[in-house]
Design brief:
Blueprint: H1 24-63, E1 69-75, H2 95-108, E2 114-118, H3 127-137, E3 144-147, H4 160-170, E4 181-185, E5 188-192, H5 209-221, E6 227-230, H6 249-257, E7 262-267, E8 274-278, E9 281-285, E10 295-304, E11 307-316, H7 320-329, H8 333-337, E12 342-347
Parallel strand pairs: 1-2, 2-3, 5-6, 6-7, 7-9
Antiparallel strand pairs: 1-10, 4-5, 8-9, 10-11, 11-12
Helix pairs in contact: 3-4
Bound molecules: fe (ii) ion.
Length: 349
């Protein structure tokens, strides 16, 4: 906006032309000259303000993303239990250092909106290791979200109420009232689900009618928002393991298939890296932080007219000796690491 006004021009006629009442010619001449000068000043100011306005618009357009964008880090199966004295391919002994390294790497990254941990936050179902996890995660400089996992909520484990009270005690920004909850970010809908079985010692997942109803309602109430689901249990299985499957998988898939705005699901549980696509929806399984390749994912999503683009990177932790020993102990390190270190995928509207 141009704010120039000749009457308020602080540079107005400083030669005396404005106030010469004795010499009419000089006064007229000075007046004409002053008028001409004011017009030039006015024109200059107009041009300057126009250039400034154009530059402001251009800079603003260039400094903001053209389309809604969300960037997040996905960590899963941290299995924190630093008190373990022995090593296996599951590097529990170094779980604290691996988590700290991931947190440090994320804190050094630019543009991360939030972090999601999809279950098995601690290795055993005790309160102290969950508290240690929550304290460690609270070092993150961005909001962090969580889902439950079968290693924590199980027969003889902690209750959902206890689990949530521990997370909510240490998490400054995220305090959900249920183990299933949702949040919006830049026009995207994110849904965190539970699926743990508290009445049995099992690695199976089960999603109650209440939880599937919540998923169904969230997707139905936000049809224009591309939706991303976070949970411990993969729905499209990344590997064969009859003991890790979802017991009511068909009912779950029935909900997803009713909602074209469901664009992706990120899970863990199998401790392998895999990316699948089913019915125009991505199913991403991220490996465990304590098991080869000891990595997490960084995901950038952009909502465009052509669909949602997913840029998915696998980021390794920097404890290379630990990673090498975990690889040595792995039964199938190639399957654990997956084939995509970085992938860009378009999920159509
Ligand atoms: Fe796990």
């Amino acid at each position: 906006m141009c704010i120039f006004s000749p009457d308020s021009n602080p540079f107005r006629d400083s030669t005396g032309g404005k106030i010469d009442s004795e010499n009419g010619r000089k006064a007229m001449s000075n007046s004409a000259a002053g008028s001409s000068r004011r017009r030039r000043i006015a024109l200059s100011a107009f041009l300057i303000s126009t250039v400034v306005l154009f530059a402001t618009i251009t800079f603003s357009a260039g400094s903001k993303p053209a389309y809604p964008t969300v960037k997040f880090a996905h960590l899963t199966d941290v299995h924190l239990q630093p008190g373990v004295g022995f090593e296996s391919d599951r590097m529990l002994k170094y779980s604290q250092q691996l988590l700290d390294d991931a947190v440090d790497q994320i804190n050094a990254m630019k543009g991360v909106d939030f972090v999601i941990f999809t279950g098995d936050l601690a290795n055993t179902p005790n309160r102290s290791d969950l508290e240690l996890f929550a304290k460690s995660a609270s070092r993150l400089k961005v909001p962090w979200y969580w889902t439950t996992g079968n290693h924590n909520i199980t027969l003889g484990g902690v209750s959902r109420k206890t689990f949530m009270s521990i997370m909510n005690k240490y998490n400054a920004a995220v305090k959900p009232e249920n183990a299933h909850y949702s949040f919006m970010k830049n026009g995207f809908l994110f849904i965190a689900l539970d699926g743990t079985i508290s009445w049995s010692w099992t690695a199976h997942g089960y999603f109650s009618d209440k939880e599937l109803g919540f998923l169904d309602k969230q997707l139905a109430e936000n049809p224009k928002a591309p939706a991303v689901i976070f949970q411990h249990f993969p729905v499209v299985y990344p590997a064969d393991s009859k003991t890790h499957e979802i017991t009511n998988r068909e009912a779950y898939l029935g909900v997803l298939d009713r909602h074209p705005n469901a664009k992706a699901l990120f899970a863990g549980h199998y401790h392998v890296a895999k990316i699948d696509k089913r019915n125009n929806m991505l199913f991403v399984t991220t490996p465990s932080l304590v098991q080869y390749p000891n990595a997490f994912r960084v995901v950038t999503m952009v909502k465009k007219p052509s669909g949602v683009t997913f840029d998915i990177k696998l980021v390794e932790t920097r404890l290379k000796d630990v990673q090498a020993r975990s690889r040595d102990g792995a039964s199938d390190p190639e399957q654990a690491a997956g084939s995509e270190k970085e992938i860009k995928i378009l999920v159509e509207p």
